Each structure stands twice: as C-alpha cells, then as structure tokens.
C-alpha cells in the first residue's frame, strides 16, 4: 500500500515524499480513508506508529478542498487539542511539514510564554489551531479565538485529555464547539472508565484499533530491576557507565525528584537536564531541544514528557520511579522504539512499588523480565523476583543493539528514500 492509493491530493503527496514517507503505517492506512469519507473516528494504536499523520493528513486534505470551494477570509476551521505544550508544538510542526504545499496556515498556542506572538498569529488569520486547553480557554475569554467555524476537531492523547486533571477544561471547550463537526479521537491507551464520555463526544464513529488497547510494541525490550529506594541513584549511575546507553530519558515521579536526579548525574560528569512543570517554558523547550540534538545524554522528566514526544534514536527509557497509573507506563516507554526502531525500557522497582508493577503487567498483559545481575539487587529479592522471564543484562543489550534494524516495512522504506 502506498500513499498514492489513499486518494491523497498532490500537494500533500509531494510533502510526504519530501519527508521520506512512501507507505502509510497501519493506523494511517485505516484512519485516512475513514476520515476523508467524513466519519468521526476513534483511533487506538501503539505509541510511535504514526498517529499524528493519521489525523493531520486527512484534516489538511478536507480543509484544502473546503477552503478552495469557499475562498472566504481565513477562520479557524480545525482545532487540535493536546495535553502538553511540547506535544502541541510537535503536532504544529507536523501540520507545517505535511501542509507546506497546501497554503493552509496553522498556529500553536500554549501557556507558560507571553501570549503576544500567539495573538499576533491569530489576528493574521489561521486555518488550523493546535492548542493546550488552558491557554485556549484564556484566549477564548479574551476574544482572540472563536470556535464558531470549527468543522474538524481532534483530541490527541484522548484519555489523558478527558481525565481528572484536564477533563474539566476540555469539556468546557467541547461545549463551545459547533454540533455540526467531524471529531477524531486518538490515543495509545483507552481505559474503560472513559468510554461513556467518548460515546458522548463522537457520533457513529469508525473505530480503528490496529493493536490491542494498551499493548506495548515488541521492538521495545522491557526489563525490571528490583532495587531498594536508597540505591536507585547508584544503580542509575552504574547503568550509565555503559556507552550503549546513548540517549536516555529518565522518568521521575516528582519535580523535586527530577531535579535531584539531574544534580546527581551532573556531579558524576554525566550531561543531564531536567524537564518538568516548575521550569519556565523556555527552559523546558531548551532541555528538550538539547536532548533531541544529542547535546545532552540524559533528560530527566516528569510525566509531562510521557506523551507523544518524538525523539529520534532514543536508546533507553528508564523508569526511576514506576508510575501510579499503569497506562502512563505504556506512554512513557513508547518514547523509545519509535518509527520501527528498537529501544529498551528499564524500570526500577522498590518494595513499595510492587503493586504498581503488578498493575502495569496486568494492563500490558505481559510479565516484564527481571534483571538480576546488577550490584544493587535487593537483599530480600528472592521474595519478589519471579522465576520466569529473567534476562541477563548482556542479553538485553545484545537484543537491543545487534543490528538496530527497522522492523516495519514502511519505516524501512521511508529511511531509504530520505
Ligand atoms: P507519531 O506516532 O505520530 O509520533 O509518529 C512516530 C514517528 O513515525 C515520527 O517520527 C514520524 O515522523 C514517523 N512517521 C509517521 N508516519 C510515517 C510513515 N508513513 N512513514 C515513515 N515514518 C513515519
């Protein structure tokens, strides 16, 4: 299957070609025709499998046809909501790349920075608005944004958008949208609890599920280390002595913890920066771009970096702390093993986190192999280490680094032609 076979218009095909994309990924292959036919859509696919293009391509195409027919002044006709500022920026960049020959304009708005450049862009007119909920509500209140012409609405990372933290704001935004619109909802995880809410947002949706909900991709090798809380720092430094840990995203449960881990790594000469909600937006963006450009080896993050963030050649995700919400594990580890590449996700588990580990294994329907040969193995580990699924450190490295091959055809092809 090629993009040409999906009835995609030339300006978009040309842009995809320059991105090096030739074949749609499974989520794209199934979602693009359904969206182009005008359906609402509920899309669920594993992390890193091309969800952004699955909604961006058909949205651009539908908008392009509509705008050509109408030729009126620019008005915001498509709205994409994302949970974090970094993800919103990344989605905006994708719309810019895929839409570069369409003449359609997009802008991204998010909090933590001055609103001036954002309101200037809005005043100049945009077709597609990508936003985080808080800043959008703010600018709506100030009358910089009107949602009355919205025809296409995308909720990315839908489960996160509808949960307790953001759900209230998102519902307020949805209430202001015209009823006559096309809605697309995407996520890698869709916990049962929100299905009723989803049903109330979508009308007769086409459901696209390319893999079991909440599953993790096989190109990500997972392992767990049982370790006392006090030894986690030493274990991390021990692991980072290995040069194979080229580009490592470390997740910490708290902002304070992220700062502490970063400081500890810097003290022993490892280049690291932290990204979390207490940092200024410019510091957050700088840390992320330093990490993407490989200027630093380790980025220590809270869960603001768990969703959607796409870093090329990210070799390892390390869960310094396990997340309380098991679905968050799926998103965190999905920062590696993207676009068909391989990666490793290692989790530290102290005695208090055993329940969290069990819940994660239930959600992913897999038992995570245990690594025993490390110097900080818990003294009473025999009570927690399961007998099955153990792997040796060197086996894990071998699996991850032998041949670094791409597993999926579409990604392999894309790499060749780029
Ligand atoms: P996403 O899941 O949207 O974050 O995409 C994951 C990665 O796959 C990104 O680096 C995209 O640039 C890349 N990608 C998306 N679609 C394709 C495709 N059809 N062919 C090759 N690479 C793709």
Automatic annotation (TrEMBL):
GO molecular function: ATP binding; hydrolase activity; nucleic acid binding; RNA helicase activity
Domain Helicase ATP-binding: 32-208
Pfam families the record matches: DEAD, Helicase_C
GO CC annotations, alphabetized: cytosol
Residue ranges annotated as motif Q motif: 1-29
Keyword DNA-binding: no
InterPro entries: DEAD/DEAH_box_helicase_dom, DEAD/DEAH_RhlB, DEAD_box_RNA_helicase, Helicase_ATP-bd, Helicase_C-like, P-loop_NTPase, RNA-helicase_DEAD-box_CS, RNA_helicase_DEAD_Q_motif
Annotated Helicase C-terminal domain residues: 219-382
Alphabetized UniProt keyword annotations: ATP-binding, Helicase, Hydrolase, Nucleotide-binding
PROSITE patterns: DEAD_ATP_HELICASE (PS00039), HELICASE_ATP_BIND_1 (PS51192), HELICASE_CTER (PS51194), Q_MOTIF (PS51195)
Segments forming domain DEAD-box RNA helicase Q: 1-29
Gene3D superfamilies xref list: P-loop containing nucleotide triphosphate hydrolases
Protein family (similarity comment): Belongs to the DEAD box helicase family.
Name of the protein described by the UniProt record: DNA/RNA helicase, superfamily II
């Amino acid at each position: 299957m090629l993009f040409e076979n999906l009835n995609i218009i030339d300006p978009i095909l040309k842009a995809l070609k320059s991105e090096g994309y030739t074949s749609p990924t499974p989520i794209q292959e199934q979602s693009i025709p359904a969206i182009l036919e005008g359906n609402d859509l509920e899309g669920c696919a594993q992390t890193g499998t091309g969800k952004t293009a699955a909604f961006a391509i058909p949205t651009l195409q539908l908008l392009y046809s509509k705008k050509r027919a109408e030729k009126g002044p620019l008005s915001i006709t498509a709205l994409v909501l994302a949970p974090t500022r970094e993800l919103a920026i990344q989605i905006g960049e994708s719309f810019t790349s895929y839409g570069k020959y369409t003449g359609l304009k997009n802008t991204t708005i998010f909090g933590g920075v001055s609103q001036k450049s954002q309101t200037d862009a809005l005043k100049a007119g945009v077709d597609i608005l990508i936003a985080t909920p808080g800043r959008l509500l703010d600018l709506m209140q100030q009358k910089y944004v009107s949602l009355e012409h919205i025809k296409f609405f995308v909720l990315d990372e839908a489960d996160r958008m509808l949960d307790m933290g953001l759900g209230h704001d998102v519902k307020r935004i949805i209430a202001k949208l015209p009823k006559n619109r096309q809605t697309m909802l995407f996520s890698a995880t869709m916990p049962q609890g929100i299905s009723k809410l989803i049903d109330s947002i979508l009308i007769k949706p086409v459901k696209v599920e390319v893999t079991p909900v909440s599953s993790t991709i096989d190109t990500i090798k997972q392992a767990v280390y049982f370790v006392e809380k006090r030894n986690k720092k030493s274990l991390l430094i021990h692991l980072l002595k290995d040069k194979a840990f080229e580009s490592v995203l470390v997740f910490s449960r708290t902002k304070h913890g992220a700062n502490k881990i970063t400081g500890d790594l810097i003290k022993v000469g490892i280049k690291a920066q932290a990204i979390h909600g207490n940092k200024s937006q410019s510091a957050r963006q700088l840390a992320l771009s330093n990490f993407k450009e490989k200027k630093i080896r380790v980025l220590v993050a809270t869960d603001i970096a768990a969703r959607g963030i796409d870093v090329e050649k990210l070799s390892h995700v390390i869960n310094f702390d396990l997340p309380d919400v098991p679905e968050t594990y799926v998103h965190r580890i999905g920062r590696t093993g993207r676009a068909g590449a391989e990666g490793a996700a290692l989790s530290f588990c102290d005695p208090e986190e055993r329940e969290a580990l069990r819940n994660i294994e239930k959600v992913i329907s897999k038992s995570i192999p245990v690594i025993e040969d490390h110097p900080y193995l818990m003294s009473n580990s025999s009570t927690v280490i399961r007998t099955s699924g153990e792997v040796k450190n060197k086996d894990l490295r071998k699996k991850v680094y032998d041949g670094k091959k791409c597993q999926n055809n579409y990604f392999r092809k894309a790499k060749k032609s780029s």
